[in-house]
């Protein structure tokens, strides 16, 4: 009987140590992820900017391609379940890819759900004049007004050192280079 109890305790200890080891490894991998909040042009940035040191992933696009997104869009509880699946997918991604990853989204809350620390997020936005000029890129005035309100809200939420402002759309690669301290970012 004592041998059975010792064996059960030993296997429970082994399971607990494996669990702790997997959590420590996940913590190690998550240290390599960063976030970038960009309201307009995030897919273009992810497709056109590459580096040997960084991988840029448009997490909004990835979320929209997940099964059940259309039903979950209007239901918060279903969306939270989808976020759980997304976080699991992200954990698998960062374990498989051995280098740092930058997740690009227009929603800061989504980056929080992924486990990206507040200090490792940046908000890249257009200056006031450049944002007014970009009104032509929007389909309707309501969408432009929503983005303006979101831009102002995010400017209040982020610290000054985490906000990078550009005046021209062509300046975005240079701003991203400054954010992530990459010496060489190549546009494809």
Tell me what the structure shows.
This protein has 188 residues and is an alpha/beta fold. The chain folds into two domains: 1-30; 32-187, Rossmann fold (3-Layer(aba) Sandwich). 56% of the residues lie in helices and 15% in strands. The chain is built from nine helices and seven strands, in the order αβαββαααβαβααβαβ. The chain has helices at 2-30, 42-48, 59-64, 69-72, 76-96, 108-113, 128-133, 141-157, 172-180, and strands at residues 33-38, 49-50, 55-58, 101-105, 121-126, 163-166, 186-187. The strands form two sheets. The chain has a five-stranded parallel β-sheet with strand order 3-4-1-5-6, with helices on both faces. Strands 2-7 form a two-stranded antiparallel sheet. It is globular. The N and C termini lie far apart (68 Å).
Keywords:
5-stranded parallel β-sheet, Rossmann fold, 9 helices, alpha/beta, 56% helix, 188 residues, 15% strand, two-stranded antiparallel ribbon
């Amino acid at each position: 009987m004592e041998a059975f109890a010792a064996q059960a305790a030993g296997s429970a200890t082994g399971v607990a140590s494996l669990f702790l080891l997997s959590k420590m490894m996940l913590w190690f991998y998550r240290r390599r992820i960063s976030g970038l909040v960009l309201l307009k042009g995030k897919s273009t940035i992810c497709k056109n900017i590459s580096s040997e040191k960084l991988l840029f992933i448009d997490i909004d696009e990835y979320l929209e391609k997940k099964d059940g997104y259309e039903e979950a869009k209007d239901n918060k509880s279903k969306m939270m379940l989808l976020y759980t699946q997304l976080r699991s997918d992200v954990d698998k991604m960062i374990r498989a890819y051995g280098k740092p990853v930058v997740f690009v989204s227009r929603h800061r809350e989504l980056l929080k759900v992924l486990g990206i620390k507040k200090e490792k997020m940046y908000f890249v936005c257009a200056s006031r004049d450049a944002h007014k000029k970009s009104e032509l890129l929007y389909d309707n005035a309501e969408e432009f007004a929503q983005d303006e309100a979101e831009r102002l809200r995010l400017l209040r939420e982020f610290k000054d050192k985490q906000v990078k402002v550009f005046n021209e759309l062509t300046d975005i690669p240079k701003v991203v280079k400054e954010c992530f301290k990459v010496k060489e970012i190549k546009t494809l």
